[in-house]
């Protein structure tokens, strides 16, 4: 975390990064050995199995809270704070599981050093009742006073507790974000009931499972940022208001700071005179539900492959906060590949459109919807009608809701699929929502990547929407364009659109060898390693193909996917879009946003209007979009 130089602020394994998980290795090895290799299984051996299982259950529970809290379409009605999440918050809360590691180490040490931990029964009813007693009588009040002290002392708050309060929009991960000193205190408070129960002979394995899982559950409940507790529960049993807190109750502590200090029981805030006067009103208003906001702009995205489908905020908040790549830090994502495969077949059968995440752009409410199809689906002829039906339903739903602009991601506007969205506009001529492919801005970005002195380019995908527009624009500028296509008729069709004096600049080629003397390749169609081999040394590969080509030439340079950096005042972006850097979106995505911001009234479908390329580019720059 590295937020303070104060003693005990940093965790002991701070410098290890993700290598900290190696500390679980002895537990896993011991559990595996005792269950699969040992001749006899003792209760001592089974403890290591329970320790590993407990850790897995705690991680699964945390993941469940994270997933639900980030499924906007589920929680939007009862969302508490609407401040935007950010990359900074994700980074700050990256190691929100440190407490699980520490508490696991503490349990392992207790098993080794405290005899009572070595022969625990599986279950003990009396122990569970005693556990509740010790928690209410000792843990809750001590936590309350320690928590108040953290706020009352400027030194304690600034050096330790401010880390937790740096997140104005709490998430389940915020619950586990704290300094090492705070964890030492909290671990001691958790230990009081466990040791107390064991001292009275009521200890059991189930007791430890129940207490730690319940503790995590209520902590994450308080930080989930949507009001899940129904008001009817308190009306049916009024004393419950003082026994169990709610997400809105704890959210007030993050905004008012000097109220609602309790751990889980508001009773102690009542007794201490720190109960927020807004508690009941906020809970009641949130449970009545917010009026749903209609987004001004929707981007209809899609998955590329199985692993990239996991690169979404509601699956992995950390993995999705960096550009998509399987680096050493994220090798664990391969563990989830089977889940992605299951989702692959499930979405094949039951594909629906659902909201994945939202962000705000200068007050312009924007959302990203996902067409649940993987890249391979778009190249299976018998699946095209199914995909178009899903896209059409999304457009009609957006139209009914009052959305102003819906923009189609790369493969959702494929020419062979629906003619760049033209199919839907022709089928539904009375659409109020503007359908946009955003490719005018994509073409503008590619063209502005080229140096002013360029004289010749080699263009693959030359007869696609983008290829056509790029070729026609460049030939007007006196640039010679080697148009790679096997279709003479499509080349001649584009040639006929050029003015007579510019046609000499459009050259039809049918082989990659034709680009062997050209150092500017614009890739609009997948290029293999062998085909890249025809490019001369020092070639720069510009590309608008999805997915991007493999970078196999060390003696050449490669441009990234065509994208634009969002304006600086954009708030709420906390997920990277595929392989793009933070704050960068696909140019077609930016083109749809621009269409909404400029309030243009036309559909942008079918062929690109070459006359509008410069207009769109200047509009994007004036709005604060910048070239990557």
Automatic annotation (TrEMBL):
Q: Which UniProt keywords apply?
A: Membrane, Transmembrane, Transmembrane helix
Compartments in which it is found = Membrane
Listed under GO biological process in this entry are: lipid biosynthetic process
The cross-references to Pfam families, in alphabetical order and at most eight, read:
CER1-like_C (PF12076), FA_hydroxylase (PF04116)
Q: Where are the transmembrane segments?
A: 122-146, 187-212, 297-319, 331-350
What is the recorded membrane topology of this protein? Multi-pass membrane protein
Q: Which SUPFAM superfamilies match?
A: NAD(P)-binding Rossmann-fold domains
Q: Which residues form the Fatty acid hydroxylase domain?
A: 133-274
An example of a Gene Ontology cellular component annotation for this protein is: membrane
Q: Does the keyword Translocase apply?
A: no
Protein family: Belongs to the sterol desaturase family.
- This one is known as Uncharacterized protein WAX2A-2
Native source organism of the sequence: Selaginella moellendorffii
């Amino acid at each position: 975390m590295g937020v303070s130089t104060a003693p005990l602020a940093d965790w002991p394994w701070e410098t290890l990064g993700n290598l900290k998980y190696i500390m679980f290795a002895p537990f896993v090895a011991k559990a595996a050995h005792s269950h699969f290799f040992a001749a006899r299984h003792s209760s001592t051996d089974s403890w290591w199995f329970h320790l590993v299982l407990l850790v897995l259950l705690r991680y699964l529970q945390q993941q469940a809270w994270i997933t639900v809290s980030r499924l906007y379409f589920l929680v939007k009605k009862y969302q508490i704070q609407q401040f935007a999440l950010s990359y900074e918050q994700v980074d700050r809360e990256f190691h929100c599981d440190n407490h699980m590691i520490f508490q696991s180490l503490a349990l392992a040490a207790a098993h080794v050093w405290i005899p009572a931990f070595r022969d625990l029964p599986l279950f003990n009813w009396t122990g569970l009742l005693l556990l509740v007693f010790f928690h209410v009588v000792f843990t809750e009040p001590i936590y309350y006073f320690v928590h108040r002290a953290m706020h009352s002392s400027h030194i304690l708050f600034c050096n330790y507790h401010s880390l937790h309060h740096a997140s104005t929009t709490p998430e389940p991960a915020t619950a586990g974000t704290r300094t090492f000193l705070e964890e030492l205190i909290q671990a001691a408070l958790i230990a009081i009931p466990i040791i107390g129960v064991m001292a009275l002979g009521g200890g059991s394995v189930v007791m430890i499972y129940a207490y730690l899982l319940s503790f995590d559950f209520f902590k994450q409940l308080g930080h989930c940022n949507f009001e899940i507790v129904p008001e009817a529960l308190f009306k049916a049993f009024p004393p419950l208001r003082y026994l169990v807190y709610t997400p809105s109750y704890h959210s007030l502590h993050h905004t008012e700071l000097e109220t609602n200090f309790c751990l889980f029981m508001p009773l102690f805030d009542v007794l201490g005179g720190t109960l927020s006067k807004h508690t009941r009103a906020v809970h009641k208003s949130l449970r009545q539900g917010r009026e749903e906001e209609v987004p001004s702009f929707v981007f209809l995205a899609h998955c590329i492959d199985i692993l990239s489908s996991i690169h979404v905020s509601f699956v992995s908040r950390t993995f999705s906060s960096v550009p998509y790549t399987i680096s050493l830090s994220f090798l664990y994502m391969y563990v989830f590949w089977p889940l992605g495969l299951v989702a692959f077949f499930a979405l094949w059968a039951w594909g629906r459109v659902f909201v994945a995440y939202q962000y705000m752009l200068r007050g312009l409410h924007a959302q990203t919807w996902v067409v649940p199809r993987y890249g391979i689906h778009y190249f299976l002829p018998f699946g095209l009608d199914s995909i178009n039906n899903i896209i059409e339903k999304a457009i009609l739903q957006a139209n009914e809701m009052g959305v102003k602009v819906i923009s189609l991601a790369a493969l959702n506007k494929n020419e062979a699929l629906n003619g760049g969205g033209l199919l839907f506009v022709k089928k539904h001529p009375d659409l109020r929502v503007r359908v946009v492919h955003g490719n005018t801005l994509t073409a503008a970005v590619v063209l502005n990547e080229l140096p002013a002195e360029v004289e010749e380019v080699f263009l693959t995908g030359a007869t696609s929407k983008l290829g056509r527009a790029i070729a026609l624009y460049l030939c007007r500028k006196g640039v010679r364009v080697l148009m790679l296509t096997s279709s003479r008729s499509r080349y001649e069709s584009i040639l006929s659109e050029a003015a007579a004096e510019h046609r000499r600049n459009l050259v039809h080629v049918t082989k990659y060898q034709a680009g062997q003397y050209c150092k500017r390749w614009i890739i609009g169609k997948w290029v293999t390693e062998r085909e890249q081999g025809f490019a001369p040394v020092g070639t720069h590969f510009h590309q608008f193909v999805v997915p991007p080509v493999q970078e196999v030439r060390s003696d050449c340079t490669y441009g990234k996917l065509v994208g634009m950096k969002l304006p600086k005042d954009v708030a709420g972006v906390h997920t990277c879009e595929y392989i793009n850097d933070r704050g960068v979106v696909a140019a077609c995505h930016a083109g749809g946003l621009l269409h909404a911001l400029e309030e243009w009234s036309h559909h942008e479908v079918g062929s690109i209007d070459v006359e509008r390329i410069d207009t769109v580019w200047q509009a994007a720059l004036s709005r604060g979009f910048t070239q990557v």
